[in-house]
Amino acid sequence: MTELAINVQRLPGCHVVHLDGELDRVTRMQLDRTLARLLEADRPKVVIDVTDLDFCDSCGLWALVVGRRQAERRGGTVRLVGVHGPLARLLTLTRLTHLFPPDADPADATGQAADRAVTRTRARPRGWPC
Prior knowledge:
Elements: E1 4-11, E2 14-23, H1 28-38, E3 45-56, H2 58-73, E4 77-81, H3 85-93, H4 106-109, H5 116-120
Parallel strand pairs: 2-3, 3-4
Antiparallel strand pairs: 1-2
């Protein structure tokens, strides 16, 4: 049986979604529900941290693509941080790396890399700029 833990951290200006476990046909509905709730806002910004994701199949990838499309329709963004292993291979094989370009720094994921100095002066987890 596959398991996926989803933890959402609300930060000023965005939400960070931490995925831990396996994102597949069985668990994708958990992510669908979470993203649907977060993407109801106008111009939503969501960063999905997949550092602890052990596995992702095509159904899991589709959930990420659908979430990105929903965010774009509302003027927002969905970015990935910590892409590695099976998800990195899947993005490469499907030629979808352009949808989720690798971000070396979490600040890049929110498009606020220029605001890093301001971000670090506030009480936020280190490295999360939003």
